[in-house]
Write a structure and sequence with these properties.
This protein is α+β, with helices and mostly antiparallel strands and 580 residues long. It has 15 helices and 32 strands. A 6-stranded antiparallel β-sheet has the order 27-26-25-24-21-32, with no helix packed on it. Strand 29 and strand 30 form a beta hairpin. The chain binds ligand LR7 and manganese (II) ion.
């Protein structure tokens, strides 16, 4: 379009920042040739460092650095400028007593101004980046349950104080059936002084996922911006997020999440070069971009960072796109997993998740949820994750269950998944394998734990299948009947059948595989990974007695029998082990 600068770098489409002072576009580091359309005129950047001068009127302006807190009424007030606050002498008991109201230093939060100033922590260059004049408007959606009064208010004030008013369509505060009196009777009154703030009181506990959806349903802005209810938005935070969504409505833009310390309420910046990732069994984590990669690719502090998953709480998404994607799975309860679900959905169905370094928002990180879960906390989160795994992970759900082994055994009722699976089909989303290869290629995700022939220590012979009976033979890696896969769910597979003992007799045979059948599961401690020369038992844990796979002295047959830790006829090794 006339005013956007889509830059085509081979197949990737990205957007180059425009230098505002001399209005130039410069070819970046990894580009060889870049075609740009400016006001419908094609121009080409042929090499790194080459510049294109832009026309006078781009329909853009430098980010509005609005911050009404910059000359605070009371610069000496505790916590001003994001400084740490010291607990006054003699108040330690009160601090302790009030801590559990929010699982952070509630006493100090009440002490610091609701509109305190914080440092501008943006990397240099952010303040003069250009954004479009016609950015979409946004609805801010903040849901909360029993949030502390001063942090909730500080969150709202930080939005009002540091956002361009014309871009805020409304601020929706969704009260997820709080029990605290002040959130019922005082909040509406306090917020009535701000025409843009609306409070929605839910009639029953929805959990954060459905509470956000309740907000999204009534939102009237073009973009939805979700925030937690204990944040402080920093100067210039909003426009860079909306700019990304404006450039491409399938971009989901997240701010850099900075830290409001739970003990002294100080505002602390964080390392820019981090991606949001997950570790099995699907726990969110940050991963540093290695310095050599930063150097190699000349990644700048202001460069957008593409993330396999988002942290969850803070992001802007085009409203129409959010609904096209089918929002969140409304079957997710209370807390957890929804960030995985939305991230997989966005990437696999054609969108992108980005962290925008020029947008920064502080968040109080706490050790524990300060509110109650209607049902068991751990079970609730696990149930959510199982729903996500069952809909999005394809064959990789074995890794999920393999790392959270108990998840497979649970008699948890995860509810109906038909709708979610159909949605994925309808949207024509890509496979989880595609996601891993293209979005998260640095994850260690081998589908098998070990594979190839299975060698016996005493005999140096390998397990082979004659029809469906297991026997021993001279090893031959090329032989199909000697090749097995050892899966995350502890099955020893050949094709789609699994090795298991014949009841009572103990001979080995092939059975139809069943991920939940404990009687087919072999524990193998995989010391082969660390010491390739060592071998270990293959143990059936779930028979009346522990059973180990043993080669017969004759060197022909094998059986599952009483374990003997020293016996080399009971020690085995797979040809190849995978780390993951
Ligand atoms: O039942 C509930 N109803 C609610 O309205 C439970 C919670 N909530 C509200 C709650 O008041 C808060 O405003 O939902 C918001 C998030 O809950 P938190 O603050 O207890 O969550 P968190 O900050 O510990 O956890 C992160 O992961 C969650 C997983 O479901 C959500 O996605 C949170 O939004 C998310 N927070 C962030 O991404 C901030 C940075 C954390 C990191 C890394
Ligand atoms: Mn939070």
């Amino acid at each position: 379009s006339e005013t956007s600068f889509h830059v085509f770098i081979s197949k990737k489409i990205d957007v180059l920042p425009i230098n505002q002072t001399n209005r130039t576009l410069t070819g970046g580091s990894e580009l060889t040739r870049v075609n740009i359309a400016i006001k419908n005129q094609a121009k080409t950047l042929n090499q790194i460092g080459e510049e294109i001068h832009l026309p006078e009127d781009l329909g853009m302006h430098p980010v509005l650095n609005l911050d009404v807190t910059l000359s605070p009424r009371n610069p000496k007030a505790p916590g001003q400028f994001g400084n740490p606050v010291v607990v006054p002498f003699g108040k330690e008991k009160e601090v302790k007593r009030r801590w559990k109201e929010g699982n952070f230093n509630v006493y100090l939060s009440d002490l610091i101004p609701l509109d305190r100033a914080i440092d501008d922590t943006r990397p240099s260059g952010c303040a003069d980046q250009l954004v479009h004049n016609n950015l979409p408007t946004t609805s801010i959606i903040m849901c909360f349950v029993d949030e502390v009064w001063s942090t909730l208010l500080r969150s709202v004030h930080s939005v009002l104080n540091r956002s361009p008013p014309h871009l805020i369509k409304e601020i929706l505060l969704v009260d997820d059936f709080s029990t605290k009196g002040y959130l019922k009777d005082q909040l509406d009154k306090y917020m009535s002084q701000f025409p843009k703030v609306r409070v929605l009181h839910l009639k029953e506990r929805h959990g954060l996922i459905r509470a956000r959806l309740a907000g999204a349903e009534i939102a009237t802005g073009d973009v939805l911006t979700f925030l937690d209810s204990h944040v402080e938005c920093n100067v210039g935070w909003l426009e860079p997020l909306l700019e990304r969504v404006y450039l491409n409505k399938k971009k989901v833009a997240c701010p850099v999440i900075e830290i409001i310390n739970d003990k002294d309420l100080s505002y602390m910046t964080v390392d820019n070069f981090q991606r949001g990732i997950f570790v099995w069994p699907m726990n969110f984590s940050w991963k540093k971009i290695p310095p050599e990669i930063i150097k190699q690719n000349k990644i700048k502090e202001t460069d957008v960072i593409r993330c396999p998953v988002m942290a969850g709480g803070l992001f802007s998404i085009d409203k129409k796109y959010f609904f096209e994607l089918g929002t969140y799975d409304p079957g997710l309860e209370v807390w957890g997993g929804e960030n995985m679900e939305l991230s997989f959905k966005v990437w696999m169905c054609g969108g992108e998740i980005e962290i925008i370094p020029c947008s920064r928002v502080g968040h109080i990180f706490r050790k524990d949820n300060p509110y109650s879960f209607p049902e068991n906390r751990i079970k609730t989160i696990e149930r959510n994750l199982i729903r996500v795994a069952e809909v999005w992970l394809d064959e990789y759900k074995e890794l999920f269950y393999g790392h959270g082994y108990h998840l497979l055994d649970q008699s948890l009722n995860v509810g109906n998944l038909t709708q979610q699976r159909e949605l994925r089909k309808k949207l024509g989303c890509k496979s989880f394998k595609w996601y891993l290869e293209n979005v998260f290629p640095d994850i260690e995700a081998p589908i098998m734990r070990a594979s190839g022939v299975i060698i016996n220590e005493a005999l140096g012979k390998c397990i082979s299948l004659e029809n469906t009976t297991a026997v021993l033979e001279e090893c031959d890696g090329g032989s199909k009947s000697q090749n097995f896969n050892y899966t995350w769910l502890k099955l020893i597979k050949q094709g789609d059948r699994c090795l298991g003992p014949v009841p009572v007799v103990g001979d080995l045979s092939l059975y139809p595989c069943d991920n939940r059948n404990k009687r087919l599961k072999w524990l193998h401690k995989l010391i082969g990974v660390l010491h390739p020369e060592q071998m270990d038992h293959l143990i059936l844990e779930h028979w009346k007695q522990l059973r180990c796979l043993e080669a017969n002295l004759s060197g022909k047959t094998l059986k599952a029998t009483v374990c003997d830790s020293m016996n080399p006829y009971q020690k085995w090794k797979f040809e190849k082990y995978y780390v993951g």
